[in-house]
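Internal ticket #5521
Category: modeling
Description: The requester needs a full-assembly model to guide mutagenesis choices. All entity lines are attached below as received. Residue total reported by intake: 753.
Assigned to: D.W.
Attached entities:
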Amino acid sequence: MINLTINGIPVQAEEGTTIMEAARANGINIPNLCYLKDIHKYGSCRICVVEVAGSRNLQASCITRVREGMEVLTNSPRVRRARKMLYELLVSNHPKDCLQCSRNQSCELQALGDTLGVIETRLQCQPATSRIDISPSITRDTSKCVLCRRCVTVCNEIQKVGTINAQNRGYNTLISPSMELPLDSTACAMCGQCTVVCPTGALTETDGLARVWAALADPKKRVIVQTAPAVRAALGECFGLPVGTPVTGKMVSALRQLGFDDVFDTNFTADLTIVEEGTELLQRVTAALTGEGATLPMITSCSPGWIKHIEHAYPTELDHLSTCKSPHTMLGALTKSFYAEKLGIDPEDIFTVSIMPCTAKKYEIQRPEMEVDGYRDVDAVLTTRELGRMIKSAGIDFLSLPNDDFDHPLGLSTGAADIFGVTGGVMEAALRTVYELVTGRELPFENLHVTPILGLEQVKRASITFENPLPEYGFLDGVTVNIAVTSGLAGADILMDEVRAGTSPYHFIEVMGCPGGCIAGGGQPRTDCEDFRERRTRALYSEDERKVLRKSHENPHILQLYREYLGEAGGHRAHHLLHTHYTPRGLYNELISNGSKK
Amino acid sequence: MEQIANLAKSYCGKKDALIQVLHMSQTIYGYLPMEVQQIVADALDIPVSEVSGVVSFYSFFSTQPRGEHTIRVCLGTACYVRGGKKIVERLQELLGVNVGDTTADRKFTFEVARCIGACGLAPAMSIDDVVYKQVDPDKLEQILARYYQEGVSAS
């Protein structure tokens, strides 16, 4: 233990701790801007400077480690003066149009000015270069950027995609893709993790609200909404509820009050995905065992950021992807076919909206494949953050809403669907169904949770052996299925390098594009809660465990849908509506590079 | 292009060699367009955004085709005070291009520099490796003319 004093108070800290961490552990908060725990500690903004006895210059407390006998002042007149000046310099080229900014009142830069007590503008210089880049998922406005580089760290070191980096230098520095290309013409996965960490309005989701409000106001449109599993685990944060509070019932009430005609649940098609994807997996494994040959491992396809990434980075390996569409596009397709027929209305008059924890899904719905018989599967995607704003602007008092239930027939789901929003959840849901289909028995894990694939590690692995299968699956007796689960695109690269090299030992791989899964997606509320992933994960597992039905193939409405409409799992109609194909893209836009693909 | 690909491959995966490889690539190709940056990025296994970040950071890297000769007018303190700006203005007239650009005949690339270390010779400019001292804006035309005479590349 190291002994030091902070503001005259003797404190102890572990060796290697930073001054900021030691101060926080003793109830002293040091104002900061670019710091992100465990992710970004570069000392680039200097706001967290403190006075250290014996040092001539002020030290950035987020990167300076504690030393024996150190005397630190976090709130001296010199420190206060320096922080104020640093802040004034930071905002000297910032467009001060806060009232019209999407981050108004949720902006870290704005809040910091308040904390530091900055009440006047003494410095005013040329506004920062403004490049506005509107991609289907993410909108960049470089004039609002304070060059903190959190997004650069997340894109390069956490996701290891490396779409954006600092370009040019000095006053002309821009955080941008190569050669100032728009995001849409790069290998950006559209995961939106950069929009979650951006402290200002420089990186945000591309607006989907305008079209949704317009559709709701159109009396000719039947506006049908669906919500992804992870939204219910985080929406409450927009209204001040503790991180990890599930708000399924209030969310459904709020959507009804907003005027949506039907409130369906993406969970329903998560169950459907399990049946379709499970069938596909069994077909592939069977074909491999009987010598017919099949592409293995099979990899999940629910995460559109992951899909875009594999198309760019591993364009030769697309046969490994399950052909299943993502659950919300499945639900969109069913809404405009099965449900439109049931209602007897023209699919043209239906407007489908998906509330997603995801920015990549805004891109996904614009893909040419995502339509059936000329009708777009999903017309608009809103992030969890956008839904929060929508509810507030409609004047709905979210916290006092009663709990309500989803509409039928596309709203009933099992617990297996809830955990789709968590890393390992799709795999667990698939195993619950596949194991039982093959053996006639429940998955042999306590409370149905596949313990080896729970948790937030980057890559998780497990093996399941089929013993005493049902007679029709006799050929699977004693067969061991190897599985791997990863979340975050850096983890995906680890597994994909093995796949490309032909050394992958797995049969089935689950990939979610964002670290931790959809609960930490690029469209989720921004939070300073350090264990937000664990808390939101627990919220979804609690939803799973409180349900009577916890296995997708037991969902009675799914069974009915196959009986009445789809026919067989993996059959002709299911393929027409629920499956898709992928496009090899390569790392570089061929229009720009004249084809120098990897 | 092939030569650059081979060069870059010989530094395969050596991320620290980026600046070196870019230097050699610029010597081979003359400048560093997107295609060249992509080849380097692939070989060294780093994102092209990082390569572009380095290329755009250093003023000696160029993403545009460059002229046969590079003119650099010094605008360091001493040269600025002694009339460096007038040299820039006159060259803009003579060359018909702005600072940072290359003439249409690809003869000259026109740049400014922050102190070339010849303060005693102010105002100074350099063309390629040759430094011109106490430059008189009215004599610039003659200096440039020498570079158009065949076989002459320096004073």
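Resolution: model delivered.
Comment from assignee: Chain A has a mean pLDDT of 94.
Ticket closed.
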